[in-house]
Write a structure and sequence with these properties.
The protein is globular. Helices cover 75% and strands 1% of the residues. Helix 8 (203-240) packs across helix 10 (256-285). The chain has helices spanning 2-50, 58-62, 70-79, 86-97, 112-147, 152-165, 169-182, 203-240, 244-251, 256-285, 288-293, 299-307, 312-340; strands at 183-184, 187-188. A two-stranded antiparallel sheet has the order 1-2. With 346 residues, it is mostly helical.
Length: 346
């Protein structure tokens, strides 16, 4: 009788476990997406109130420094809704933002969404190029350093990565402009000091011109960012190197580089995968200083211009984009991680 009960209960328990496993990941996804939605709402609220602490009167900026009467200033305030109580401005802003309307720029008299759409491709060109390069460089050097840890090459790699990672991006950018754009002594400048193009170029010549302007900003971002990927990859691979399955693979006669590429590196890349997505969002948000230093016509340069007014709708819209990029990439990393490690999300 006991045997019958055990035999009957075993499938029921298996079905229950399977049912729980089938619903665990959807619950995990719902929790992460819900958390991201709450974070975006918090960004929306923070952005509205934070930038109203910036000194400066946008209405006076819109008059172009001309002497205007109090009645004219009041008319400008009514036109842009600045005469309304703060709580009403906030509710209007949130209502429009949820429908995709981020308002009209004071500075450019154009929809904020249009200004962001114009500058976004330039930022993606810069950050995308830098992201691909520093991710590949960090993983390659991190793998090599871990596999040869303790040697001179490892110490040089990690020392240089830590040094560059600690440098402010704007300072490194200015240093590159001084040495490679302006030139030092008899050494002439090799690259433009700023901008995205020289003007007047078409076709392939235009592509070469943009690539020429792209070199120094990309080098700045790569130099500052690759170190983190290198250090995380190196640390994760060092943790894997003492594992039993690597000893077994070597005992089977596999070459050392084959053990590294086929067994050690794939398992060690799990933390790096998360870092890659986090870095992608962080690079988009952190490009402000680099774009400003190199006068790159992207979202970072636009944000700097908007802050100087202050152009509240444009500043709020860009802040939402920058913070949203970080939140979305973090959430995407969380959602993809269970695909690499099934234990996550159960």
């Amino acid at each position: 009788m006991a045997t019958t009960t055990d035999a009957t209960s075993a499938p029921a328990g298996s079905k229950g476990a399977a049912r729980r496993a089938g619903t665990a990941y959807p619950r995990y996804v719902a929790g992460k997406v819900g958390g991201a939605a709450v974070s975006l709402l918090a960004v929306l609220v923070t952005g509205f109130f934070l930038f109203r602490l910036i000194p400066g009167d946008p209405v006076k900026f819109m008059t172009g420094g001309r002497q205007v009467s109090a009645e004219q200033l009041a008319a400008y305030r009514r036109e842009f809704g600045l005469d309304l109580p703060l709580w009403q401005q906030f509710t209007d802003y949130c209502g429009k933002a949820l429908t995709g309307d981020l308002g009209t720029s004071y500075q450019f008299s154009a929809p904020v969404v249009d200004k962001i759409s114009e500058a976004l491709p330039n930022t993606l060109l810069l950050t995308g190029t830098a992201f691909i390069l520093y991710t590949a460089l960090g993983i390659a050097l991190g793998t090599r350093s871990a596999w040869r840890h303790g040697r001179i090459g490892d110490r040089l790699n990690t020392g240089l990565a830590l040094t560059l990672y600690s440098l402010p991006s704007f300072w490194l950018g200015l240093l590159l402009i001084t040495t490679l754009s302006v030139g030092i002594g008899p050494v002439p400048g090799l690259f433009p000091t700023g901008g995205m193009e020289s003007g007047g170029e078409e076709g392939f010549a235009y592509v070469v011109d943009v690539a020429h302007h792209l070199v120094l900003p990309v080098v700045t971002l790569v130099a500052v960012e690759y170190g983190q990927t290198l250090l995380v990859t190196r640390s994760a691979l060092l943790d894997e190197m003492g594992s039993d399955y690597l000893t077994t693979a070597r005992a089977k006669g596999l070459r050392d580089d084959l053990v590294r590429r086929r067994h050690a590196v794939p398992n060690a890349l799990l933390p790096t995968v998360t870092l890659v997505f986090v870095n992608l969002g962080r690079t988009v948000a952190g490009v402000i200083l680099v774009e400003t230093v190199f006068s790159w016509p992207g979202l970072g340069g636009l944000f700097y211009q908007a802050l100087s007014v202050p152009d509240l709708p444009l500043v709020q819209g860009l802040f939402l984009v920058f913070a949203g990029a970080v939140i979305v990439m973090n959430t995407l990393a969380d959602l993809l991680y269970p695909l690499f490690d099934p234990r996550v999300g159960r």
